[in-house]
Amino acid sequence: MMMIGKSAIVTGSTSGIGLGIAEALAKAGANVMLNGFGDAGEIEQTRARLAEQHDVQVAYDGADMSKPEQIEALTRRTKSEFGSVDIIVNNAGIQNVAPIEDFPTEKWDAIMAINLSSAFHMIRSTLKDMKENRWGRIINVASAHGLVASPYKSAYVAAKHGILGLTKTVALEAAEFGVTCNAICPGYVMTPLVEKQIPDTAKARGISEEEVVRDVLLSAQSTKEFVTVGQLGALAVFLCSDDAMQITGTALPVDGGWTAH
Ligand code: NAD
Predict the structure, then answer these.
(1) Strands of 31-35's sheet in order across
(2) Terminal alpha carbon distance of the chain
(3) Of the chain's two ends, which shows fewer C-beta atoms within 10 Å, N or C?
(4) How far is the CA of 93 from the centre of ligand 1 (A)?
(5) Residues 102-152: tens digit of each pLDDT
(6) What distance in angstroms lies between residue 21's CA and the mean position of ligand 1's atoms?
(7) Does ligand 1 come within 6 angstroms of the Cβ of 232?
(8) 186 lines ligand 1 (CB under 6 A)
(9) What sign does the dihedral 157-228-197-110 (CA atoms) show?
(10) Is residue 58 within 8 Å of 34, Cβ to Cβ?
(11) Where do runs of H (alpha helix) occur along 11-126?
């Protein structure tokens, strides 16, 4: 258990990749603050299960990642409950698929706020303490779409490219303080976020939902397999280890060869 005594906030961890990373960190011994939306009863079940199975403290805060003041309250609360915030995983994200001419302006704003600006606010309110403690890990869940584009995802691709710039800048500012900042760039993972975009992609491209999975989602993913949340959790745990101290400012693809094209 390499992370005993460390505390992590994983944004958007009521579902999908965030939940997988939260679980992997808890398994490695970290206390975890869960965050995200969902059914209160289900969230409480997840919280209690993680705490019991991994014998760590697990709490939940429903801060809305589009609201800077709620993000600051989340980091303050985590510090007072767990004693410190040593690891942040900026994972919360949403998607909207539409041709740019029809792209709703409010969706653009929401994607920028949740997928990009929330990471700035999280880092802004935790980095000072990490530097003072001479230890910290910041992991931004970007995407293969941080490295390459796909049509109809203008806001998402712009936000994910943006978070890679933020990752590099924070890495440079934190480099001499024992704090690393990296981005993980997953290819397609079958989570609710991906399931929800299948009908819209089918509509935007005029093809069936089966064709979306085969010819769009997995077409560039050379392995023809989805990435799993467990694989991403394992990478996050490695990035939090002392062996990963010299890995900083990177964008690490976990994409079945997609961005090798
Ligand atoms: P998901 O929809 O399963 O989970 C998203 C999480 O974010 C949920 O917990 C949700 O409640 C939370 N969330 C959404 N809006 C929020 C807000 N305003 N405030 C707080 N929490 C909020 O999606 P996922 O696929 O697990 O995606 C997680 C991250 O991984 C996202 O940043 C996404 O862009 C990225 N990603 C996903 C894939 C994929 O194929 N699924 C690939 C690459 C990158």
Answers:
(1) 58-61, 31-35, 7-10, 87-90, 136-141, 179-186, 251-254
(2) 38
(3) C
(4) 4
(5) 999 999 999 999 999 999 999 999 999 999 999 999 999 999 999 999 999
(6) 12
(7) no
(8) yes
(9) negative
(10) yes
(11) 16-27, 40-54, 68-82, 105-111, 118-124
